[in-house]
């Protein structure tokens, strides 16, 4: 069983920054892609960013390009989401996910394991 735990969420002013972390435990993957998704209140879950097991390539939603950066540290079984120039519309619960594959994907249905999420609230 794989467990994912997100951390780093909180309340931040517009224009500020946060770094989210997601650490995997349990089953060890030889190769896996990881991604970040978010879900605002009353809205559908949407893709944010994804990264291959080797650190490249990376994919980003148009809404976060140039502001968010995804990275990973395989030695720590951890993926990060550096969030800068935050906007009120970034407010959501952010989820990390793992796919037992090398190539990242933007589709949530292709991810096998999910964390419980961490709340990010951006005030205007």
Nearest-integer average pLDDT: 93
Shape: globular
List how many beta strands DSSP finds.
11
Summarize the amount of helix as a percent range: under 10%
Biggest sheet descriptor: 7 strands, mixed
**Tally of contiguous helical segments:** 0
Radius of gyration: 13 Å
The fraction of residues assigned to DSSP E strands is over 45%
Order of helices and strands: EEEEEEEEEEE
Structural class call reads mainly beta
Which stretches of 5+ consecutive residues score pLDDT under 50?
A: none
Pick out its properties.
124 residues; mainly beta; 7-stranded mixed β-sheet; 4-stranded antiparallel β-sheet; 11 strands
Task: Summarize the structure in words.
The chain is an all-beta fold and 124 residues long. 0% of the residues lie in helices and 51% in strands. Strands 2, 4, 5, 6, 9, 10 and 11 form a 7-stranded mixed β-sheet that branches. It has a 4-stranded antiparallel β-sheet with strand order 1-3-8-7, with no helix packed on it. β7 (68-73) and β8 form a beta hairpin. It is globular, with a radius of gyration of 13 Å. The chain starts with a strand and ends with a strand.
Chain-wise SSE layout:
Elements: E1 2-7, E2 10-13, E3 18-26, E4 33-39, E5 46-51, E6 58-60, E7 68-73, E8 78-83, E9 92-99, E10 113-114, E11 118-123
Parallel strand pairs: 2-11
Antiparallel strand pairs: 1-3, 3-8, 4-5, 4-9, 5-6, 7-8, 9-10, 9-11
């Amino acid at each position: 069983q794989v467990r994912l735990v997100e951390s780093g969420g909180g309340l931040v002013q517009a224009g500020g920054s946060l770094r989210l972390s997601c650490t995997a435990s349990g089953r060890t993957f030889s190769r896996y892609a990881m991604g970040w998704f978010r879900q605002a209140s009353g809205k559908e879950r949407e893709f944010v960013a994804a990264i291959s097991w080797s650190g490249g390539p990376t994919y980003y939603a148009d809404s976060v390009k140039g502001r968010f950066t995804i990275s990973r540290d395989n030695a720590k079984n951890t993926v990060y989401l550096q969030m800068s120039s935050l906007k009120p519309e970034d407010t959501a619960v952010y989820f990390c996910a793992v796919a037992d594959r090398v190539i990242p994907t933007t589709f949530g249905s292709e991810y096998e394991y999910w964390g419980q999420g961490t709340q990010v609230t951006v005030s205007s």
